[in-house]
Design brief:
Strands 1-2-7-4 form a four-stranded antiparallel sheet, with helices on both faces. A two-stranded parallel ribbon has the order 3-10. A two-stranded antiparallel ribbon has the order 5-6. The chain has 16 helices and ten strands. The longest helix is centred in the N-terminal third of the chain and has 20 residues, at about 105-125. The chain is elongated, with a radius of gyration of 21 Å. The chain is of the alpha+beta class. Strand 8 and strand 9 (about 210) form a beta hairpin.
Length: about 350
């Protein structure tokens, strides 16, 4: 078996399946060990307990999948529009992270990776297992090693041809494929746009993230109360945050995806807070079926909308909907709704981006 030819074939097959780039790396992640252990040791992962579990399997892929010696890293672009949207404003609209507007990427990317693995197996035998943000896998460090891009100051992977708006997936294999020899060098330079724009100051330094302050963490991963001191900075972001990507100069080169799966559903790229607050739990379940929005439950959804409503300009319809949602809210959600109602009543809602935390204006 000609392994160089097989690697070339893998890249061609991946392209046919909708991936824009493929790289191959070994399993040595020792350079990540100290940083990962320090990050967890300092509690910067917040309530994401799964990050503190299976650390050895993250750092040593062969412990996760026995006999793994190579990892195929693949990139699939997801930006659904021709241009990036402006930074979110508290104007009564709801902002959802661009990656979550369409079909759940786990389903699309993992299915394509499985098809790629089957094709490799048919050609060369071997063992394979595909992942997409679905196991203790250090996706970004692996993609960095495989030459897909470099780790930016916002901790996301950056690519000079695609910015950062792409999904990553991996195939673990026992086939000794040639590793990618050309890696991407750090091209962030002196730029600090992502650090300066972060509404909550979650990016504490180059490649340093305090997840406990990150709006993506607060609105998705975190199940409980959003801290009072961070609510205003959340603005109108009801599921995730793209600010550090929207200002990144490299995302000027991001191109629109050709994947129909990632096209926005239900007008969520331009929805109002009032429209989303009108959804009862049955509507939420129906509208979000097959989407990454299911990463939050309905109570988190209402909690997030309440915070955004508390930051929005006064609106009678918004107030009426908040009261309607409060009728069957539990204690945690009700507290956020009460906060929003108080701000609406007192005229504290503002029409700016909410970048007041950490001295940002």
């Amino acid at each position: 078996m000609d392994l160089d030819e097989l690697a070339d074939n893998i890249r061609a097959w991946a392209s046919e399946l909708g991936f824009q780039q493929v790289g191959i790396t070994d399993t040595d992640l020792s350079r990540c060990s100290a940083d990962l252990r320090r990050w967890i040791g300092q509690g910067l992962h917040g309530t994401m307990g799964y990050m503190a579990r299976n650390v050895e399997k993250r750092l040593q892929p062969e412990r996760l999948v026995d006999s793994t010696i190579r990892i195929i890293s693949a990139r699939m672009d997801y930006m659904p529009a021709d241009t990036l949207p402006p930074l979110p404003e508290n104007d009564g609209s709801a902002y959802l992270a661009r990656y979550a507007l369409g079909r759940d990427y786990h389903k699309t990317v993992r299915r394509r990776l499985a098809r790629l693995a089957s094709r490799i197996n048919a050609s060369a035998g071997g063992h394979y297992r595909a992942f997409t943000d679905s196991a203790p896998v250090l996706e970004k460090p692996l993609a960095d090693k495989a030459g897909i891009g470099w780790t930016g100051k916002n901790t996301l992977l950056l690519n000079e041809d695609a910015g950062s708006m792409f999904f990553l997936g991996e195939i673990y294999t026992n086939i000794p494929l040639p590793v990618s020899t050309i890696g991407a060098s750090d091209q962030c330079g002196a730029c600090k746009a992502c650090i300066n724009v972060c509404p909550t100051g979650a990016i504490t330094g180059p490649r340093r993230l305090d997840a406990r302050k990150c709006i993506s963490y607060l609105t998705i991963e975190h199940k409980g109360t959003i801290p009072l001191e961070l609510r205003e900075a959340v603005g109108n972001r009801v599921f995730g945050c793209d600010d550090c990507q929207l200002v990144c100069p490299w995302n000027r080169y991001a191109t629109r995806t050709a994947e129909a799966d990632f096209a926005p559903r239900h007008g969520l790229d331009s929805a109002s807070l009032a429209e989303l607050l009108s959804w009862d739990e049955a509507t939420f379940s129906a509208k979000t079926e097959g989407m990454a929005l299911r990463r939050v439950n309905y109570r988190q959804w209402v909690r997030n909308l309440a915070v955004a409503a508390g930051n929005a300009p006064y609106g009678k319809k918004l107030v009426d909907l908040l009261r309607q949602r409060r009728a069957d809210a539990d204690e945690m959600v009700a507290e956020h709704i009460d906060w929003a109602l108080a701000r609406q009543a007192n005229g504290q809602a503002i029409r700016v981006c909410g970048r007041t935390a950490g001295g940002r204006t």
